[in-house]
Write a structure and sequence with these properties.
The chain has 139 residues and is mainly α. It starts with a helix and ends with a helix. The chain has helices spanning 2-21, 26-41, 49-64, 70-82, 84-108, 119-131, 134-138. The chain has one domain (2-138). It is globular, with a radius of gyration of 15 Å. It is 78% helix and 0% strand. The mean pLDDT is 87.
């Protein structure tokens, strides 16, 4: 429960900044990544190293190819430390967010706004996880 209490305000701050400016400062992303790393080293988080490695590799490759922003890559890396349910909820929220925005822009006949901010999607996914009670079992 403590990790969710810390995760939700962080995601809200990141989502607001991402939505307003299209970027999330390292001041927000690096401390979360560092805390997750420390918790993993201390044994508080027990995500398998191979799973973390795969997510990190995918995030780095997508970032290097310009398909993922730097803040999003750091968020994926943070979520990888926190475990598969967190990563899956964040990713599904991102997919739903992108689909909803793309659909709304098409209906309104508006031009695509690219790149779309990702953190509101992560917040949607993890907020839904908490709202529907899955967080109670996980955190």
């Amino acid at each position: 429960m403590l990790s969710f209490v810390l995760l939700l305000p962080w995601l809200i701050a990141c989502a607001l900044q991402d939505y307003r400016t299209g970027q999330v400062n390292n001041v927000l992303t690096l401390p979360a990544l560092g805390l997750a790393l420390i918790a993993r080293i201390a044994g508080v988080l027990t995500t398998p190293g191979w799973a973390i490695g795969i997510v990190w590799l995918v995030a780095l490759v997508l970032w290097q190819r310009g398909l993922l922003g730097g803040a999003d890559a750091k968020a994926w890396m943070t979520f990888a430390f926190l475990g598969a349910p967190i990563l899956l909820a964040a990713y599904l929220g991102l997919v739903i967010w992108y689909a909803a925005i793309t659909w709304a822009l098409k209906v309104l006949g508006a031009e695509d706004r690219l790149p779309l901010p990702g953190f509101p999607g992560y917040l949607l996914g993890l907020g839904s996880m908490a709202l529907f009670g899955a967080a109670h079992n996980y955190f």
